[in-house]
Amino acid sequence: MRRPDEVVDGAAEALAAGLARGHTRRSFLGRVGVTLLAVMGGSAVAAAVRPDEAESFHFCGHIWTTGSCPNPYSLPRIDRRGFPLRPRDGRPIDNLGRLVDAEGYPADETGARLAGPDGELLERGPRTRLCEDWVPEQFRIDAVTQGSWYRCCSGQVRKLVDCCSTSTKRVNGDKALRGYCYTGRRVFCVMYYDTGLPC
Predict the structure, then answer these.
(1) Mean pLDDT across the chain
(2) Does 101 score more than 80 pLDDT?
């Protein structure tokens, strides 16, 4: 049996193809109709997607609207203090995306310190908070972690976090939204923290 989102998606696609065949390339109304169907079909699909399946759209619990805060990986996973973690396993990383040991030195998968090409052990790299440090450095704006909301993702509670700024533009380059920000700030980018609490 097909899932509801597959049925809606298939129907919208077939209807859009039929409309497109019935109009010339120059037909403005035909193109508008196809676009509207695609948008309506997309929102219906998004509404029907279970939280654990939302990963393919952005990350679980957040379907693409505001982009991720700058980070070493494509997914903006953070620890409870806002420092970057490797998305797949939650291990601490530096700003270059390298695993780090408890002292902050670059380490391999087993926790042994990494050596450079000359055989010397590598020094610590920077490890800074995504919102309060990376965003102001890269975009020359103020930023603070403020709003949050929670979703059940892969059997645990995920805290989704807004990085808020007084900027009128968000990381996407378009108009910033208020989201869960307060004191005159708007959402600039988003991050997430996996709590480890079952749901």
Answers:
(1) 79
(2) yes
Structural Rg of the chain based on CA atoms: 21
Instruction: Count Cβ atoms within 10 A of the Cβ of residue 85 and give its class: 0-12 exposed, 13-18 middle, 19 or more buried.
Output: buried
Can you give the residue range of the structural domain that contains 25? Answer: 4-48
Distances (CA, A) of 143 to 132, 137, 179, 180, 190: 5, 10, 14, 14, 12
Same domain, 43 and 58: no
Statement to judge: residues 151 and 197 lie in one domain: yes
Residues 56 and 134 in one domain: yes
Give dist(CA 71, CA 66) in Å, integer: 15
Q: Counting Cβ atoms within 10 Å, is residue 163 exposed (0-12), middle (13-18) or buried (19+)?
A: buried
**How many domains does the chain contain in total?**
3
List, for residues 160-185, the tens digit of each pLDDT value.
Answer: 999 999 999 999 899 998 888 999 99
Residue 165, classed as helix, strand or coil, is: strand
Residues 120 and 132 in one domain: no
Q: Is 105 found in the same domain as 44? A: no
**Residue 37 contacts residue 140 (beta carbons within 8 Å):** no
Beta strands 186-198; 144-153: pairing state: unpaired
Long-range contacts of 175-181 (CB under 8 A, 24+ apart): 177/65, 177/66, 179/66, 179/147, 180/146, 180/147, 180/148, 180/149, 181/146, 181/147
